[in-house]
Amino acid sequence: MRTMVVKIGSSTLVDGTGQPDRAYLAQLASQAAALREQGWQLVVVSSGAIACGLPRLGLKRRPRDMPTLQAAASVGQAALVTAYDEAFSAEGLTASLVLLTRNDTAHRSAYLHARDTLTRLLSLGVTPVVNENDTVSVEQIRFGDNDTLGALVSCLVGADLCVILSDIDGLYTANPGTDPDARLLPEVRRIDRAIVDAAGDATSGVGTGGMITKIRAARVLMCAGIPTVVCDGREQDQLTRLAAGEEIGTRFVPPAARREIAPRKLWIALGDTVHGTLTVDGGAADALANRGSSLLAVGVTRVEGAFERGDVVNIADEDGFVIARGRVGASSDELFLAAGRSQAEIEGNRLLSGLAGHPAVHRDEMIVFV
């Protein structure tokens, strides 16, 4: 069986009254049944809990305070899972609910437990419906958007395809709502600064993601060798058509030679909160991207954020473009003092000499995006 992960945004899943769109879920379940006949198993990463809870609490707009958001999620999650269960049961399928927070993936052992749960559900013929546990999540343990969660789940289950359903039909060269010359990009083979700059903000008022979060998710999945498609969630039979090889939306194509990315590096890329950013000079950026090198303290020019040894940080080039992510080998205080210094200065400083003997980020603890 091949595995497809489909992420569905709130604006696609919820109707105009704030209720789960049961007609939409019925056709999703019908596609899931058809996919199974074609040798595919489906994992659904679903938004919509908060959006479904708002009207049931008499709220006309998304609140800003965390307790009310969590209350809406608690009410909406019940409505959402009931709608999924009824739709999939009508097709003779069993759906399950899996709620995750970063606490369930930030530690290596928890990450593996989450993987084992999803793998076992699939082996039992169940369609897992995964969502962030918004009822208990706070800022420190939130994924922040379900595009990131969709990428994480795709890596957990070793997906053959990740499909991100949205309220736009793919990635454009510019914002199609404001630029009449914007054109759809049917295929992307490398995510560079131009691609990131083309991504706009969220296009709906009920979700938390935008095109930029989809680009970030696709970037990690390309490293993992998993193709990603961003397409219109209202396109007819898009999942079965994609499974048959039809071109829909924008497809992010991994390198022809699938890179072997260790599960540990995927966990670094997606499983924990980023605590800061290290800016590196041109020589260090080239060494990371093209020579598989570790990052040395001498290559760091600027430090942002507060972090301790072992925390996950972004690594950016001099233009601010993130080229890698990894577990840092020193605290922010140490690297702040070392930033911009020569190797001789680092070795000769009693406070910093320890940095001269080991990398700021070891290559085994780093995933490079370029």
SSE blueprint and pairings:
Elements: E1 2-8, H1 10-13, H2 22-37, E2 40-46, H3 49-56, H4 66-89, E3 94-100, H5 108-123, E4 126-132, H6 146-157, E5 161-166, E6 187-188, H7 193-198, H8 211-223, E7 228-232, H9 238-243, E8 250-252, H10 263-270, E9 274-280, H11 282-291, E10 300-305, E11 312-316, E12 322-327, H12 332-338, H13 343-348, E13 366-368
Helix pairs in contact: 2-4, 3-4, 6-8, 6-10
At a glance:
This protein is of the alpha/beta class and 370 residues long. It has helices at residues 10-13, 22-37, 49-56, 66-89, 108-123, 146-157, 193-198, 211-223, 238-243, 263-270, 282-291, 332-338, 343-348; strands at 2-8, 40-46, 94-100, 126-132, 161-166, 187-188, 228-232, 250-252, 274-280, 300-305, 312-316, 322-327, 366-368.
Descriptive notes:
This protein is an alpha/beta fold and 370 residues long. It folds into two domains: 2-263, Acetylglutamate kinase-like (Carbamate kinase, 3-Layer(aba) Sandwich); 274-368, PUA domain (Archaeosine Trna-guanine Transglycosylase, Chain: A, domain 4, Roll). The protein has helices spanning 10-13, 22-37, 49-56, 66-89, 108-123, 146-157, 193-198, 211-223, 238-243, 263-270, 282-291, 332-338, 343-348, and strands at 2-8, 40-46, 94-100, 126-132, 161-166, 187-188, 228-232, 250-252, 274-280, 300-305, 312-316, 322-327, 366-368. Strand 11 (312-316) and strand 12 form a beta hairpin. It starts with a strand and ends with a strand. Residues 138-143 and 201-209 have low confidence and may be disordered.
